[in-house]
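Let's sit down with a protein and look at its sequence and fold side by side. We need material for that, and I hope you will provide a protein of your own picking. Once you have written the record down, we can walk along the chain together.

***
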Amino acid sequence: MKHHSPSFESIKPNIGSSFTCLHFTKSENIKSHVWHYHPEIELIFVCGGSGKRQIGSNISYFSDGDLILIGSNLPHCGMTNENTNNEYEVVIQFSQDFLGTELWNAPEMNRIFQMLQSAKSGIVFGEKVKKALEPKIKALSESSYLDKLLKLIEILDELAHTNDFKILNAAKYYLQTQKEDNDRINLIFNHVKDNFKNQISLEEVAGLATMTVPSFCRYFKKITNKTFTQFVNEYRITHSLKLLAEQPMSITEICFESGFNNFSYFNKTFKEHTKQSPSQYRKEFSNIMA
C-alpha cells in the first residue's frame, strides 16, 4: 500500500458567511481514515458515539461524543466512521483572520486569541463544557447570517474561559519543522496505523525514513517528544480501550487483537497509560454507561 503525507484540504466558507458550519447526520462524514490538514481552525462537535481520534502525534479514545479544537495546519484524521454510532456531527471551520485583523486587538478578544494559538497543539474539552455547549452548537448549525456569527463568538468565548480541557500534543510539535520532516513523519504514522496489530521493528521504520536506527530514534523523539515504542504502544492501548468499551471479547483476546504478544506487558503498559488495569477500566466504563 502506497502512503502519502497528509492531504491538503481546501475549505470554502458557506455563501454569505465568513466561516463554514457543516451539520452531518450519524456516519455521513466518514473521514476517520483520511489524514489531512488545512490552514483553517476547526471546531468539531460529535454528539454521542465513540471512537479513536488522531490529532498530530496524539492518539486517544473518546467514549460519549467529543468536542475538539484543531489549530491551523495541524494534521488530523476525521472523527467519525460507520462504527462511531454518533447522533450527528457539527464541523465549524474558520480562518485565523475571519473577523479581520483589527478586532483581535480588542481586549475582549484576547482570551479567544490565546486559545486559538494553543489549538495549534490540539485541544480536547471535557464532559462538563461539552454538555453545556451542545444546545448552542446545534443552534449554530441552524442559524443564519449575523446570528450565526454572534453565536460562534459566544461559543469560542465560553471555550476560552473554561478550565475543562486538555492539550493533546507537546508545545514543540513537529509542524514547526521542515516539509521534508512532515512528509517523513506522516509516512511513519500511516505505517503504524496500518500495521499496529503486527510487530513493527525499528529497522523497518528506520528503513521507511531512510535513516539508521540510532538516527531515527533521535529524530523521532526530537519531533514527537516521545520514543517510537511509546508512540506505537499509545496507538495499541487506544485501540484496546475501544475494544474494552465496545466489544464482548476477553481481555486476553483484546491484548493480542491490539498488537501485544505478551499479556503481562500489555497489563503493565495499560496501567502506565490509564492508571488502572484493563478489568478495572472495563468495570468502571460499564458503570458510567449503565
